[in-house]
């Protein structure tokens, strides 16, 4: 079903009661469905990303709809589901529980010695498993209707269930991860489904993932480094330091981009942790790290992926923070619009 756009003025002012980007679509007539996941239970530092989907909707009304590279993409329809209030409430409760637990282990105490804390940790882990199951069901439902699907976090633990649903739909594919971190930690801080373990978890559980390409990493631990070295090139990480040094020594971004893309399989899932960008663009993200990409630098890679004939099968955007002046959400909504256009432009 196509939406009737005859009454819609894409050059006009957005109507606030409309959906994302002020677009006049609904769940039936939109080709792309975005699933918001208001979840940041395992985030130990700054809170806020669970509220990002609601904030991004408001900020998105300021995004102009003309994208010179794929000017008709949005006309295929973009619709974001309502934020699920039950998931959000569960997040708020479990985030507090997890804070108690993290404060406890940060004092050097052992969880094995404290029954109360063992129960808290169990509750957090079960809650995260429930969220994964919920995301799986939500995204699978839409994929079964032949919709294009994307996920908006929340923290970076949120896409686990979505990636599972995609392995069932597409079989083998690669993940392109934009991130300041590797997220390859095994059970970070005793948490089964931490934002710092998302790539470890999906690589462990879904052999369909043939390649993990990480770009912009600049904060990682020795175990993660060893994981990459022992992966037999299944995980390829372009560290920020290496990328910067290569450009200092005269290599162009075009050369580096071509090299990156040549190692990617035909089908690609994009996992975009906004902290891969320079923190000037995401100051309130959960774990900001100095350095990082400019938005256009990453968009250039995406554009080249499309022109190389590869297919983008879905994406998540996670870790967007919220701020009093709306800056993080403003950037987040622009990254999101570009990703939506890419997904629809094929
Ligand atoms: Mn991440």
Provide a short characterization of the protein structure.
This protein has 346 residues and is α/β, with parallel strands linked by helices.
Structural summary, described in words:
It is built from ten helices and eight strands. It is an alpha/beta fold and 346 residues long. The chain has a single domain (20-344), classed as Ureohydrolase domain (Arginase, Chain A), CATH 3.40.800. The chain has an eight-stranded parallel beta sheet, with helices on both faces. The chain starts with 31 loop residues before the first strand and ends with a helix. The model has no long low-confidence stretch (mean pLDDT 94). Manganese (II) ion binds at residues 156, 179, 181, 183, 273.
